[in-house]
Design brief:
Residues 15-256 form the Protein kinase domain. InterPro entries: Kinase-like_dom_sf, PQQ_b-propeller_rpt, PQQ_rpt_dom, Prot_kinase_dom, Quinoprotein_ADH-like_sf, WD40/YVTN_repeat-like_dom_sf. By secondary structure, this protein is an alpha+beta fold. Among the domains are: 11-292 and 309-317, Transferase(Phosphotransferase) domain 1 (Transferase(Phosphotransferase), domain 1), CATH 1.10.510.10; 338-371 and 587-708, Lipocalin (Beta Barrel). Helices cover 15% and strands 31% of the residues. The strands form 11 sheets. A 6-stranded antiparallel beta sheet has the order 1-2-3-4-6-5. α2 (104-111) crosses α9, α3 packs antiparallel against α6 and α3 (117-136) runs antiparallel to α8. The chain is elongated and about 90 Å long. Mean pLDDT is 80; it is low at 170-175, 261-265, 290-346 and 631-637.
């Protein structure tokens, strides 16, 4: 005989349970109750954990955390949060200022069938617009389901933020997690991946399919009766591959395109009547005593009736919800501003982006940042300079044709190399200030890689060609003064250090370090050639045991005259001058990307989504923090970065960018900014930092977030 489950409490904090919103047989994620706030007498909606997981301590912690983070959602279609249970509560909950309201399954039940096409389109346009707004702010809802969609007289509200994140630890295929609606769960999340913006689009498609058919089934036969245009759009939203799903703004635009934007629709009469009966059955009551001050009082105010027209993808108009005869209040999709323009003042809440810019095509390299004022972006189509503070284009050129990476100089110019020359281009205007033609490969050597620059001096690799265009074997590294436009020195390169055009050079205060490529150091050692930066004189070549050739991109020079390398599951630090190993530290997974150094600390993230803060003097971990993102099977999209001030560390996982406090590793905020096309399911990469700004690139969309 199964043990009897403890009865659900009738009082939670200041709220008394007076009714239920769950439609029979549809409470697949969480429980929603009608409650009365005994401080104010107002009626509200309260969400509790799924009853099968209410006794799970881990789930309760995650549920409470996501409930608190639901305050991050802004705009008219997020259910306004009044209260969240405190950490000492036996049962977590979140209270919303939503009443009267019907979950979508209950609305279909009282309507006695699926909604008409125009009703579904209006509902979908509103919710898609809300998702577009949230995704642009780096937020993934991860809890959209029919039961989480509340219909109100002046528009829908989404509840259930983060229920998928709360429902299950992530890892190998576990099927549909308990506490999360199985019907609207994207296939990649069934397989254990973290929620993403593309997952929200799938869930939205499932909700609209349910609203249009009345069946919790997204299979192709269930969609056969849908109108052709709507069916094609929902099929795209429900694509198995996340990268094939459209963006929310595209969904909103297509839903609006086939609607009648000049008409203000109405709720079906049966739904409007049910809402009126609900309001009459649970009226607000005047409290016996004067109400105590209510936290977040502004959020508790009744929802406003927004009257501004929605503008999505160039389409605008009022969106009517349903064409039922005799209905009551019409629904309008309302736009909202970008929200806060600065960093959030609530811990855990991602700041709204300062700006976003679509660079249009595939980036050729990470943006180059100049003095915290300008971002130089190179794509397959053009080279563009952006104002780093506003995201506005300063200039753009499609005639530079750089054959390799651009190199930024301190004097306000950059180097753009082509096949037979390189140009010095003004950052301010995009005008070419000079062309160097002495390295054309005919009368002189040819440049095959720029290594980088310090101030106005740049370094590059050259090779000479003999008769018939064959390589002569003469390779050199050249130091070039961009102001005087002449070479300072040229040093011949031994065979192991010539590179193949992808050499990752390291810069020491006095030396240029070039890694070996396939020399005789062996599988368990790599070597470096050190050149004096001022004279080009060869200082030494040195083997570093345990350092593998293939990890050259994951090395850096750290304070204390150290060369740090990431090999397998070990961080190693070698003394550059002497070559001896100073310290080593084991990591749980393989470090992905290049670590970041700031002051006396080194930061690295491994494949198990654990970030380490390492004291570079001793090699000991100051702190380590594991993310709830994918575990051993994860391949990280990016590495680790540190803000310009050094106060914030950015950990990039398969699904989110987490901002950590550099002092102790605690979470400041997390963000999953929406990408485009194949990048729609990934969170992007941190590609640059400047005073007060961190740049995130996702596909072709570049975001600037405020930081510190």
């Amino acid at each position: 005989m199964e043990p009897q489950r403890e009865a659900e409490p009738t009082r939670l904090g200041p709220y008394r349970v007076i009714g239920t919103l769950d439609a029979g047989g549809h409470a697949d994620d969480a429980r929603r109750r009608i409650v009365r706030d005994e401080r104010t007498g107002r009626t509200a909606v309260l969400m509790l954990p799924h009853e099968t997981l209410a006794d799970d301590p881990g789930y309760r912690v995650r549920f409470r955390s996501e409930a608190a983070n639901s305050r991050r959602l802004t705009g008219p279609w997020a259910a306004p949060v009044i209260d969240v249970a405190g950490p000492d509560a036996d049962l977590p909950w979140v209270a919303y200022a939503c009443f009267p309201a019907l979950p979508l399954p209950a609305a279909l039940a009282v309507y006695d069938g699926p909604f008409p096409e125009l009703t579904v389109r209006a509902l979908g346009a509103v919710l898609a617009h809300a998702l577009a707004h949230w995704h642009a702010s780096g937020l993934v809802h991860a809890g959209i389901s029919p039961q989480a969609t509340l219909l109100m007289a002046d528009g829908p509200r989404l509840t259930g933020y983060g229920l998928v994140r709360a429902a299950t630890p992530h890892g190998p295929d576990r099927g549909a997690p308990l506490g999360a609606d199985a019907f609207s769960l994207p296939p990649e999340q069934r397989a254990g991946e973290r929620p993403s913006p593309a997952g929200d689009v799938y869930a939205l498609g499932a909700v609209l399919c349910y609203a249009a058919t009345g069946r919790p089934d997204v299979a192709e036969p269930a969609r056969a009766a849908l109108p052709e245009a709507l069916g094609e759009l929902l099929a795209a939203c429900l694509a198995q591959e996340p990268g094939q799903r459209p963006r929310p703004d595209t969904v909103a635009g297509e839903l609006l395109a086939a609607s009648a934007p000049e008409a203000v629709g109405r709720l079906p009469e049966a739904v409007a009547t049910a809402l009126a009966r609900q309001a009459a059955a649970y009226p607000a009551e005047v409290p016996v005593r004067a109400p105590e001050p209510v936290e977040e009082a502004a959020a508790a105010a009744p929802p406003r009736h927004f009257r501004r027209a929605l503008v999505v993808g160039g389409l605008s108009g009022a969106v009517g919800l349903a064409l039922g005869a005799g209905g009551v209040a019409g629904w309008r999709a309302a736009g909202e501003g970008a929200g806060s323009r600065g960093a959030s003042d609530r811990r855990g809440i991602a700041p709204a982006p300062l700006w976003r810019h679509d660079i249009g095509s595939e980036p050729q390299q990470t943006p180059l940042l100049w003095r915290g004022r300008t971002a130089l972006v190179s794509t397959t189509d053009s080279v563009t300079a952006l104002n780093l503070r506003t995201g506005k284009k300063i200039w753009s050129r499609d005639d530079l044709y750089p054959m390799s990476a651009l190199t930024l100089l301190d004097n306000g110019t950059f180097v753009s190399p082509d096949t037979s020359a390189f140009s010095l281009v003004s950052l301010a205007t995009g005008r070419i200030k000079g062309v160097e033609r002495r390295y054309d490969g005919v009368d002189g050597p040819a440049i095959y890689q720029f290594l980088g620059a310090v101030k106005d001096i740049c370094w590059f690799l050259t090779r000479r060609y003999g008769d018939g265009g064959a390589e002569s074997g003469d390779h050199a590294v050249v130091s070039y003064d961009s102001v005087r436009r002449k070479a300072i020195w040229s040093t011949p390169l031994p065979a192991p250090y010539r590179g193949d055009g992808t050499t990752t050079a390291l810069w020491h205060s006095t030396m240029l370090l070039l890694p070996s490529q396939g020399d005789d150091a062996g599988e368990d050692a790599s070597s470096y050639l050190a050149l004096d930066r001022r004279s080009g004189r060869k200082l030494w070549t040195r083997k570093f045991p345990g350092m593998k050739d293939e990890s050259a991109e994951q090395r850096l020079v750290a304070p204390g005259d150290l060369l740090v390398s990431c090999d397998d599951h070990v961080l190693r630090a070698f003394h550059i001058a002497g070559g001896e190993e100073r310290w080593r530290m084991a990591t749980k997974g393989r470090v992905s990307g290049t670590p970041a150094a700031q002051g006396r600390s080194l930061y690295a993230t491994d494949s198990r989504a654990i970030t380490y803060a390492v004291d570079v003097r001793s090699g000991s971990a100051r702190w380590r923090r594991g993310s709830a993102a994918p575990l051993e099977s994860s391949s990280l999209r990016g590495g680790t970065a540190v803000s310009h001030s050094g106060a914030t560390v950015f950990q990039v996982t398969d699904s989110e960018i987490e901002a950590l406090d550099a002092a102790d590793g605690s979470l400041r905020w997390r963000s999953a900014l929406a990408g485009r096309g194949q990048q729609a399911a990934v969170p992007g990469q941190v590609v640059g930092v400047a005073p007060g700004i961190v740049l995130v690139l996702n596909g072709t969309i570049l975001y600037a977030l405020p930081v510190d």
